[in-house]
Amino acid sequence: MQEEQPSREQLFLEIANLRRELEDLKNKKADLEILLETTTEHSDIVEAQLHQSNQQLQAEIAERQRTEEALQASQAALQSLLTIVTRDKIDLEILLETTTEHSDRVEAELHHKAEEAVRASERRLAQFLEAVPVGVFVIDARGKPYYANHTAQRLLGKGIVPEDTTAQLPELYQAYVAGTDRLYPNAQQPLALALSGSCSTVDDMEVRQADKIIPIEVWATPIFDEKGEIVYAIAAFQDITRRKKAEAERIQLIDQLYQLNTAYERFVPREFLQFLKKKSIIDVTLGDQVQQEMSVLFADIRDFTALSEKMTPSDNFQFINAFLSRMEPAITENNGFIDKYIGDGIMALFSGSADDAIKAAITMLHNLAEYNQHRAQAGYHPIQIGIGINTGSLMLGTVGGNNRMQGTVVSDAVNLASRIEGLTKEYGVSLLISHQTFLQLQNSSDYFIRIIDRVKIKGKSEEVTVYEVFDGDLAELKDGKLSAKTIFEKALLFYKNQKFHEAAQLFQDCLWYNPMDKVAKIYLERCQFVSTNFRINEE
Amino acid sequence: MEIKTEDYSIWYDSVTETAIFQGSLRLSGMEEYAPIVKLLNELVDSEPPKITLNLRELEFLNSSGINVLSKFVINVRQKESMQMIVQGSKNIPWQSKSLKNLQRLMPSLQLELA
Questions:
Q1: What is the pTM of this model?
Q2: What is the ipTM of this complex?
């Protein structure tokens, strides 16, 4: 092998190349060293950083582990809480459900009960209304029939009439004014009045059915709602046939009783019962009595016996009654009452003043004068009467046995009045009164009175002064008595003083004035009688 | 332990350990029921081993009332040792249904409907 030896040049070139390479390597080495240094430094930094973060991570992991433990603990707590809450929730749900269901149930039950109660009460009410023996009829606020119970339907002859009718109730139900052919005026019938707010009763209505008429009594009243407005009117009515019949019978009975009572009163004066303090004759018993101051008047027809002999019994009664019926008013008008009639005579009592008795007597005489005029026109003789009045204490009472009794007056005053009446005939005057009556007069100058005599009454010890009241005399006689009154009184005085001669003269003067004055005539006769006897005695 | 009014009466018979309700309970709201709630709470607090609720003559009970009874049952249930019996009447319509709900609150509750 012979290799060609490199030339120098080549060597040189080689050396040059090598040198460049060296240089290059040197550069590279430097770079690498720098690189190494940089990398190392960097590594250190990075390593340090890694270390730090590793440490942080460690801490974090520890932390996390702790948190996890805590979480696990709280999860357990929550779990138990959840259990409780769930339980409570279930409880509450059940509670709510229980309460709601209970509420619904109770409500339903109450509602049912209330409805049942309402229905029961309605049924009961309807039963009540059906059971009552009176008709019950209800109309609504417009006046349309709404309800009628069984009795109502029977009494009316029909029930609720169909709505399409427009007739008014009285026409609809044939209600008439009792005893007439007039329909009951709608405006006055109680249901109509009830609809206008008032409550009323009528008993003059009758319902006409085909074959009968039923009188009814109707009562009606409005029914208000809660606002106070009238919603219905209710009427109750009943058949009053029996009542009407009983009423009619009662009225008839009362009428009969009234007539009987009036008849009784004619026999037993009302005043008599009043004095005995009895309301009715029913209360009067035997032995009832009362004492009272009264005036007693006796009146009698003069010479009635002679008069009656000429008449038939029937005429007699007719005459007496014609006479008495003219006398009676004079007594009652002057507060007196007739105790009894005694044949043609009258006994009357005056419990008020004595003036009543005098006025009655004067009126009787005036009535008689009038009666006599009628008699004269009919061709009859006039009649005369005598009246005697006395005043005193009277006992009124009942006398008799168990089966027959009568009211009577027992008193001396009555006997005296009767005697005084008897004296009128003797003295030929119409009206005489006792001094007891005279003293009771309110004002004696109201009458024409003259003293007549002082007389001894049969069976009495003391004397009684009697006075004549001549207001009732006929005008002529009255005037004569009046003109001679002073002379007459003077004459009486002479007579009393036994100056009979003077007295006789004056009595004669009286007779000149009044020839019909029988009293003056009597006194004159007495004077003459006394004078004659006196002369005889003297002789 | 007794509450008596015109409408209802409630009392506790300690011999039979029975709370007896009679009449008609229609108080309005929990405020008016407070005295009854108090009575029942005292009963629970005394922790008898067994408690009987006799409602056989309780004719009427309103919603607040059933509420009171329900809460009472819950209170008893929470005392785990206590037994409970509720006595009702079949003749009172609300009882058979409403009292069954008490069992839902306390399944161990014995319900005696007669």
A1: 0.51
A2: 0.74
